[in-house]
UniProtKB/TrEMBL annotation:
Belongs to the drug/metabolite transporter (DMT) superfamily. Plant drug/metabolite exporter (P-DME) (TC 2.A.7.4) family. It is a multi-pass membrane protein. It comes from Dovyalis caffra. The lineage of its organism: Eukaryota, Viridiplantae, Streptophyta, Embryophyta, Tracheophyta. SUPFAM superfamilies: Multidrug resistance efflux transporter EmrE. This is EamA domain-containing protein. Keywords: Membrane, Transmembrane, Transmembrane helix.
Amino acid sequence: MKEVLPLTGPFFVASFRLIPAGLLLVAFAGFKGRPLPSGLTAWLSITLFALVDASCFQGFLAQGLQRTSAGLGSVIIDSQPLTVALLANVLFGESIGIAAASGLVLGVIGLLLLEVPTLAFDESNFSLWGSGEWWMLLAAQSMAVGTVMVRWVSKYSDPIMATGWHMIIGGLPLLAISVLNHDPAFSLSLKELTASDISALLYTSIFGSAVSYGVYFYSATKGSLTKLSSLTFLTPMFASIFG
């Protein structure tokens, strides 16, 4: 995402990551015979889910990626399992015990050990709002709340179908902001985008959203939310390897 943001604009990338992926996921769910959402409660729950997990998360993430240092941003965004653990305990009575709680804390320490050596900023000129860390923190909390919300949404809709529709609905406000913001994507021609740029956009939409969101939120309807969200500690590991 970070490579194509300067070329196309943050909100365009955020909307492109969601809308095509949502259409693919809805088509896949329909092909598998999964039912469409039905009733006001189902669509209302999906819309709220979309605004929190899709619009807010992707919007904040895109803003944060423009301003944040890679290391500290990664630590913030992937520390959201701590929020999930707290919410799951309060809302669903999930108790993880001392050992599991210690594991979450060790996970955050692990992120720090992995990323802190890459941090280099002048503390005298550091601005939380301008640097992007604040946006990353908001993105992390949006993702955490979205992870917990899917349990509620799946009571009224098929989880795969709901995930697809929440990406489509959540991407529309981001697309509107992109247009109003005059993101450079709308003045670009395809000739100005390299094969690498187009591949990056397609990858973030197909694999970074359609596949990963579908699997993640389907899994969130089963088992422990805290254990599931803790897998996001692996994200900076793979990011470091691929980087």
